Amino acid sequence: MLKTDLHYQLNKYSSFNIVGQYMSGRYACVDDANWVCGTPKKLDDSFDFKAFYQYQLDKLLINFGLSNILNEEIYLVQPYRGSQSPIQSYGRRLMLDFHYRF
Q: In the chain, where are the structural domains located?
């Protein structure tokens, strides 16, 4: 796995961010015959990029952007050799986050 984070400060309160993540091929159990893993198969490499605008004022933080820009098919894999097949993650989506610190 390789992660990158590019940040460009527009002014004192706002910035533009690009976050990227590359995951090499992982092995997962894709055959669930009788809930037995069988032989794990290698999944394809995957990329996940998001770009967003961030505005921060005192205790308020707002993020607006696009996630999974390339609309990759990203699969969530069990971290152990279990019997559950990989689950497909979200596709491309708009992000809107509000954070307030008390």
A: 2-100
